[in-house]
Specification:
mainly alpha, 9 helices
Length: 180
């Protein structure tokens, strides 16, 4: 996982490379060793999600994080804590009500959106997940088929959520641009 994280950082200006690496790791995220590596590098991954993807058209790393968060509530909780800390760092005012010198509107809104998306993935999940569970329990699909279909469902759920967020961001940007 260290090499993957380093490659993502090294090629951070090339979304195609980052997307390939994120998809590669997401496919193996069910294994304990892969998950442990992802968890160890979570602060670095969160930093890249907040700061690098702010300028990208695709939410590649965010989707990756949402897939992992759907698999592990522990991961989702840790990422939530990191985002809560980042929200405090980038919010418009300090807790005392004074202007925050570290305020960054883009990163602040990015963290709020990420937090909301994690909640949507983890709390509400995908409607298909229950159907897959029933199919597996009835013996309609094998364990391998169940695991593969569950991963594809998580990937699809993360893509739907981030695509909706991108559409919303684009709409808000167009509204902002027309007011100027």
């Amino acid at each position: 996982m260290e090499k993957v994280t380093m490659l993502i950082w090294q090629f951070r200006d090339d979304p195609a490379v980052v997307q390939f690496m994120a998809q590669f790791v997401a496919r193996f995220s069910g294994s304990r060793s892969t998950y442990d590596g992802i968890e160890f590098y979570l602060p670095q991954i969160a930093h890249m999600i907040i700061h690098l993807e702010a300028d990208w058209d695709e939410a590649i790393l965010e989707r990756f994080a949402l897939v992992i968060a759907q698999q592990s509530q522990h991961f989702a909780l840790q990422l939530t804590w990191i985002l809560e800390g980042a929200i405090e760092d980038y919010q418009p005012e300090t807790v005392e009500g004074k202007p925050n010198p570290g305020y960054n509107q883009l990163f602040y809104h990015r963290c709020i959106t990420l937090l909301s998306n994690i909640e949507r993935c983890v709390v509400y999940g995908s409607p298909r997940s229950m159907e897959l569970q029933r199919m597996y329990e009835k013996g309609d699909i094998s364990r391998d088929e169940y695991e593969q279909m569950k991963l594809e469902d998580r990937l699809n759920n993360a893509k739907q959520i981030t695509t909706h967020g991108a559409n919303f961001r684009n709409l808000m940007q167009r509204m902002k641009d027309t007011k100027i």
